[in-house]
């Protein structure tokens, strides 16, 4: 059994999907005569999809039901991701360095259909021991539930787990779960509060080198 584990968030950390979400949500807001702010985007990130849409509805003052908003967003996002899904810089190098050395998992606020699309499009499903999408948990980030679930399935204690996250909600979730948290902010999240993180990395390669230095082999 491997002694240490690395758990990846997905959106904005492994794949360049936050850009697609923001484009989609901005388009939906504009269609309704509303404006999507950076503050609302930050509050939505990392949460279960239906929770994100409740925040979206409330902040934008929309009459639509959150479930209807989510369905619309899912349809638009699937179309975008099928045409324009790309890995974040350094992802493949990270996986090459970590695979076989650590147990690996993904714990994402995305639903299983988007998780499957990402790992299969990039051809990396077999790199991971555990995959935990948001539709398999009750409470989304910043609740620690999703990371505790991943650790349980990996059979590795929290103090032997590093988590890679790009959002404040995700970092808080991982910290509450007892993991060693490495923040890798993207251009869409750089303004957020990463106080819960133990280390701030410039990019995935920087994060990789830091984790190798902390956990070794």
How would you describe this structure to a colleague?
The two termini are 13 Å apart. Helix content is 47%, strand content 11%. It has 217 residues and is an alpha/beta fold. It is globular. It has 2 domains: 5-16 and 85-215, HAD superfamily/HAD-like (Rossmann fold); 18-83, Orthogonal Bundle (DNA polymerase, domain 1), CATH 1.10.150. Strand 4, helix 8 (168-176) and strand 5 (180-183) form a beta-alpha-beta unit. The model has no long low-confidence stretch (mean pLDDT 96).
Keywords for this entry:
6-stranded parallel sheet, alpha/beta, 217 residues, 11% strand, 2 domains, DNA polymerase, domain 1, Rossmann fold, 9 helices, 47% helix, 6 strands, single chain
SSE inventory with pairings:
Elements: E1 5-8, H1 18-31, H2 38-44, H3 49-60, H4 66-83, H5 91-98, E2 103-107, H6 112-122, E3 130-132, H7 145-154, E4 161-165, H8 168-176, E5 180-183, E6 199-200, H9 204-215
Largest beta sheet: strand ordering: 3-2-1-4-5-6
CATH class of the largest domain: Alpha Beta
The total count of helices amounts to 9
CATH topology of the largest domain: Rossmann fold
- The end-to-end distance, rounded to whole angstroms, is 13 Å
Radius of gyration in whole Å, from Cα?
Answer: 17 Å
Quaternary = single chain
- Low-pLDDT segments, ≥5 res: none
| Overall number of structural domains | 2
Helix-strand string? EHHHHHEHEHEHEEH
CATH architecture heading of the largest domain: 3-Layer(aba) Sandwich
Q: What is the β-strand count?
A: 6
What proportion strand?
Answer: 5-15%
Main sheet overview = 6 strands, parallel
Described by the principal axes of the CA atoms, the overall outline is globular
Percent helix among the residues?
40-55%
What is the CATH homologous superfamily assignment of the largest domain?
HAD superfamily/HAD-like
Structural class: alpha/beta
């Amino acid at each position: 059994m491997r002694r240490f584990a690395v758990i990846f968030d997905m959106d904005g950390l492994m794949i360049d999907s936050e850009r697609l979400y923001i484009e989609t949500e901005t388009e939906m807001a504009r269609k309704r005569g509303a404006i999507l702010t950076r503050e609302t985007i930050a509050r939505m990130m990392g949460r279960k999809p239906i929770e994100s849409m409740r925040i979206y509805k409330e902040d934008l003052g929309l009459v639509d039901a959150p479930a209807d908003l989510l369905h619309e967003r899912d349809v638009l996002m699937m179309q975008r991701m099928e045409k324009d899904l790309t890995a974040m810089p350094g992802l493949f190098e990270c996986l090459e360095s970590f695979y076989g050395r650590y147990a690996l998992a993904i714990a994402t606020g995305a639903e299983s259909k988007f998780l499957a699309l990402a790992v299969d499009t990039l051809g990396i499903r077999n790199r991971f021991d555990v995959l935990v999408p948001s539709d398999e948990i009750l409470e989304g980030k910043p609740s620690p539930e999703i990371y505790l679930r991943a650790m349980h399935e990996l059979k590795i204690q929290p103090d032997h787990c590093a988590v890679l996250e790009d959002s404040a909600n995700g970092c808080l979730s991982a910290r509450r779960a007892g993991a060693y948290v490495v923040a890798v902010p993207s251009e869409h999240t750089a303004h957020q509060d990463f106080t819960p993180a133990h280390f701030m990395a410039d990019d995935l390669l920087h994060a990789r080198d830091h984790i190798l230095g902390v956990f070794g082999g």
